[in-house]
Amino acid sequence: MMILETDRLSIAFGGVRAVDDVNIAVEAGQVFSIIGPNGSGKTTLFNLVSGIYTPNNGSIKLAGKSATGLAPDELARRGLSRTFQNLQIFYRMSVLENVMVGRHRHERTGILADLLYLPSVAQQNETSAKAARTALARVGLADLANRAASSLSYGALKRLEIARALATEPILLLLDEPAAGCNPVETQEIDTVIRSIVKEGITVVLVEHDMRLVMNISDRIHVLASGRTLAEGTPEQVRSNPAVIQAYLGIHGSQEAARAFD
Amino acid sequence: MSLRSWLEIRLLPPMVVAAVFICVPWFFPSAYYYRIGALVFIFALAVAGLNLLMGFAGQVSLGHAGFLGIGAYSVAIGPAHFGVPSWLCLFAGAALSAAVAFVVGRPILRLKGHYLAVATLGFGLLVAIVLTNEAGLTGGPDGMTVPRLTLLGWGVRGSDVWYWIAGTTFLGGFVLALNLMESPTGRALQAIHDSEVAALTLGVDVARKKLTIFIISAVYASVAGSYLALFNGHITPDAAGFLRSIELVAMVVLGGMGSILGSLVGAGLLVVLPQALTIFHEYEQALLGLILIVFMIFLRRGIVPSVAAIFAGWRK
Question: What is the number of CB-based contacts under 8 A between chain A and chain B?
Fold first, then answer.
């Protein structure tokens, strides 16, 4: 079954076609990576799929149902969650509270109950905290639950965003450069986390520059260049595609690379 | 939440405020001090509501005195022109403020930062202008007298009685605000303050949450406005004016954004200081300004959060 499909998805900003006629089809349970040089439209594609931008053209389907033009919170309630390339942490809150916000779509108390702190609210808080702790444990941050989010290291914050997204219980998780700025140890931790997420049946769409991580973990790779699809295939197919090498290294660089491989 | 932090966060501040509220009158040398005390609690109520919006959800309002004005004129116009009892007008005023906040909030809460500030500023000016110009109903720039509050045949009069009413109401508003902070709605609001886009992608209906807190803060201001009018027995459009709105914002920031206890401290300081500084005659305003500047330089996160941080540093 296809979890995510886009059909001729396009958006332009002031004449620049940031995403142009992109078709992707993500099968359930896979790790689907989107790669491409800087400015090739990867994050823009994420913003389209997660409802932050509305496409000029084309359509999006989430789990077989049309999801074109839906707001991010509606998409979240349908099971799509994401992380951000530039961290979007709730810095005023504790680590646990950050993840508890991820439980929002499962929380059922009304505003009057909240104001009066009825027993249902206390119970809800407990349930949410418990689920949030489980999510934190999945990314290895259980010990830091009561710390202020602002006191965490960069690598830990990256994992905090993943825990927060997991707490929503998504069917599809979009990870925007989860390993960017991470050292090799932190990158290895992210690799482990992604594998465990997929094992639980959550589909992962990954934008990432760390080629070793992408090649290791992906079932399929979609390559963008200047907003258009350049290639798609398994890691082996993409790795040996001359057009991909050229896009990454330029004509001159790819000639150099070809010479080096000879 | 652990038992200890529950005691510290949920129970201790209201208990301390309640203790101070009950004990302080023993030291009042004259009825005049009851008057000041009542004013502190009335403003603290409005400031607590505004703090929920500003310090907590991160949405600024430079027109909050507009709601103060709606509450104040409800208890003035209702009994005078329509013969409705004052207490009923207080509730009607709160409902009207909520309705106005709903209508006004929907379009303007989409704006952010300075743009939201200017839009709310416009709202406050609008209310003040209507109150000034509808002279037939409101008495125009000279204002109007407000009939005394009567509850079950008992005429509410005297600064001491208003001290107890205002203080008790503030305590109630204080507890409700603390409750809200610890609830799912509270977490969603704090999330909106730090990153709207992240809150959205986690399924928080940001627009609705902002509107909810805007309405709640409007009701706080409206009740405070009604009290102010009933207590003073006279009301002018200045109650809804720009300066009053700025004063409320200053109280929030001075006491501490996101600290409801800070709202009481901020309101207390800005009500008491001008009274205390009258001995300096013409230098009063200048000194007040100077003191505010010094406070903000040395306690830049506002009085209560800054002092709390200093104490937390000592404990380590």
Answer: 109
Which among B2, B56, B201, B220 is the top mutation candidate for probing chain A, defined by the most A β-carbons within 10 Å of its own β-carbon?
Answer: B201
Instruction: Please report, in tens digits, the pLDDT of each residue of chain B (316 residues total).
Output: 455 666 666 788 888 899 999 998 888 888 889 999 999 999 999 999 999 999 999 999 999 999 999 999 999 999 988 989 989 999 999 999 999 999 999 999 999 989 999 999 999 999 999 999 998 888 888 889 998 887 777 777 888 899 999 999 999 999 999 999 999 999 999 999 999 999 999 999 999 999 999 999 999 999 999 999 999 999 999 999 999 999 999 999 999 999 999 999 999 999 999 888 888 888 888 898 999 899 999 998 999 999 988 888 887 6
The backbone torsions φ and ψ at residue B301, rounded to the nearest 5 degrees and listed phi first, read -90, 10
> In chain A, what is the straight-line distance between the N-terminal and C-terminal CA atoms, in Å?
42
Out of A76, A101, A164, the one facing B188 most closely (by C-beta) is A101
| B201 contact A CB<8A | yes
Q: Does B191 touch chain A (CB under 8 A)?
A: yes
So what's the ipTM on this one? 0.90
Residue appearing with tokens 């290639």: A231
Tokens for B67?
Answer: 């709601």
Q: Which residues of B touch A94 (CB under 8 A)?
A: none
Strands (E), A36-160: 57-62, 65-66, 80-82
DSSP state of A168: T
> Is residue A9 within 8 Å of residue A50, measured between CB atoms?
no
Number of domains in chain B: 1
Is B75 a domain residue?
yes
Structural domain includes residue B216: yes
Q: Is B148 strand, coil or helix?
A: coil
A97 and B190 in contact by Cβ < 8 A? yes
Restricting to B residues 239-258, those with a Cβ less than 8 Å away from any Cβ of A are 258
Q: How many helices (H) and strands (E) does chain B have?
A: 15, 4
User: pTM higher than 0.90, yes or no?
Assistant: yes
- Which residue in A has a C-alpha nearest to residue B177's C-alpha? A115
Q: Would you say residue B173 lies in a domain?
A: yes
- Interatomic CA distance for residues B37 and B35, integer angstroms: 5
Sort A100 into a burial class: Cβ within 10 Å, 0-12 / 13-18 / 19+: buried
B129 in a structural domain: yes
- Give me the domain span that covers residue B32: 3-241
B187 and A164 within 8 Å at the Cβ level: the answer is: no
Q: What is the dihedral of CA B254, B259, B264, B268, to 10 degrees?
A: -20
Chain-chain contact of B195 with A90 (C-beta, under 8 angstroms): yes
Q: Which of A16, A33, A22 is nearest to A222 (CA)?
A: A33
Q: Does A52 touch chain B (CB under 8 A)?
A: yes
Task: List the single residue in B185, B194, B198 with the smallest CB-CB distance to A84.
Answer: B198
* Correct CATH for A2-79+170-261 of 1.10.1610.10, 3.40.50.300, 3.40.50.2300, 3.40.710.10: 3.40.50.300
Considering only CA atoms, which of B108, B36, B96, B107 is closest in space to residue B68? B96
